[in-house]
Write a structure and sequence with these properties.
single chain, 35% helix, D-Maltodextrin-Binding Protein, domain 2, 19% strand, 2 domains, alpha/beta, 5-stranded mixed sheet, 315 residues, disordered N terminus
Length: 315
């Protein structure tokens, strides 16, 4: 699912519905999460809040400790514990690469619910949020963000050959296609904004149910995020994913970006992180790191935190 595009805060029901995106981790991952969460909370001394407004000294202290604590939310493919009990996902793997460049060789997961990531960060339960968190103005009032390491577009599940020629929500409306998306997905609003009647939308539990609906001919198209749509059609010989596209919100293309979050006082660490992130972008190494998790060149981005914060302090 894509995130609702309204102005929800991190203490609202929006976060309690798990996420702003799509897939939740499986039962095996969550089993490991509980054990590692307790270990992460008990095994690390809390790092004191950076004093003053000089940008903080957390990076210096992390180098001395040799380990950085990563707040994760157990979401595949963003940040989770795999079936073998190993920390992985697009954000943790990127964190390993960047923090090693910054002189911090080890990462330690601290699993929590998505809605607890920012409160946990600000209460010093961990040092950085590594969960592919979407940057928005409300969150930018609570934390500082690195520049996004990925952007997220929408895509459709359609029958092989895309017989109705459906490439965006306007096509769905113009061709009177039978349309489905997931429970609580922002794609509902995107379709309605394009002119689709909400009562005509088939709401299904998830992308697998959406795939089944397309295969069975109950609908012509299922809408979700590009990464999850690409993943789900791998299981099908009857369907394909359309090219990723940006939905329109208030008449303008809407693209979300996910990034690492830091405590507001720790701008030195955020800035150092950004320097290494931009090196990885320029070299193409970022794409290589994220590729195993379903991210393609379509998810690579030059978006900045400042843009997504609306010119807020994370810029």
């Amino acid at each position: 699912m894509a995130p609702p595009h309204g102005n929800e805060s991190d203490t609202s029901g929006y976060e309690s519905r798990h996420s702003r995106r799509t897939v939740l981790a499986g039962a095996a991952a969550f089993g490991a999460l509980g054990a590692l969460g307790a270990l992460g909370a008990a095994g690390c001394t809390r790092v004191a809040t950076a004093a003053g407004t000089d940008g903080g000294d957390l990076l210096q202290r992390l180098r001395a400790q040799g380990v950085v604590r990563l707040g994760i939310a157990g979401e595949i493919p963003f940040g989770y514990i795999d079936k073998d009990g190993h920390l992985t996902g697009e954000a943790p793997e990127l964190a390993k690469a960047i923090f090693k460049r910054l002189g911090v060789d080890k990462v330690q997961p601290v699993p929590t619910e998505f809605g607890s990531l920012i409160p946990g960060l600000n209460s010093q339960q961990f040092d950085v949020v590594a969960a592919g968190m979407y940057v928005n103005p409300e969150r930018c009032q609570q934390v500082v963000f690195a520049d996004p390491d990925y952007q997220m577009l929408d895509s459709f599940v359609v029958r092989k050959g895309n017989p109705k020629g459906l490439h965006d929500y306007k096509d769905v409306v113009a061709k009177k296609a039978k349309f489905a998306t997931g429970t609580g997905y922002a794609e509902i609003q995107y379709a309605v904004e394009a002119g689709y009647k909400e009562s005509d939308i088939l709401i299904v539990p998830d992308q697998v149910a959406g795939l089944n609906a397309v295969e069975a001919g109950r609908v012509d198209v299922f809408a979700g995020t590009a990464v999850t749509v690409r993943d789900v059609v791998k299981k099908s010989a009857k369907t394909e994913a359309t090219k990723p596209f940006a939905p329109l919100v208030d008449g303008k293309p809407h693209v979300d970006g996910g990034a690492f979050a830091f405590r507001s006082a720790e701008t030195r660490l955020r800035d150092a992180f950004n320097v290494e992130l931009h090196k990885l972008k320029k070299s193409g190494e970022l794409s290589r790191i994220l590729r195993p998790f379903g991210f393609t060149e379509a998810e690579m981005t030059d978006l900045t935190a400042k843009e997504l914060c609306g010119g807020g302090k994370s810029g």
